[in-house]
Specification:
By secondary structure, the chain is an alpha+beta fold. Helix content is 19%, strand content 37%.
Length: 79
């Protein structure tokens, strides 16, 4: 039997879009020019997967202090 991902409550008890709002708030403070480009979308029945590229300039604090280093561009590709 295939295992399906089910929405889980975050630390605040929120699920779905409400659970993602604080995550995006932190990301947009850290990478104010954050851009997500969806490269491909494949759907089959009630399942879908996408490939994306995320780019932005690291200008803020993320997972700890930024230390004394210049801003830098970041790029991440995901599936």
């Amino acid at each position: 039997m295939a295992q399906r991902n089910t929405p889980r409550a975050g630390a605040t008890g929120a699920t779905g879009a409400q659970a993602l709002k604080p995550v995006w708030a932190v990301l947009l403070r850290t990478f104010p020019d954050l851009h997500v480009a969806v490269e491909d979308v494949i759907a089959d029945g009630d399942r879908a997967v996408f490939r994306n590229t995320v780019t932005g300039t690291h200008l803020g604090e993320y997972k700890g202090p930024m230390a004394a280093r210049p801003a830098r561009a970041a790029r991440e590709r995901g599936l």
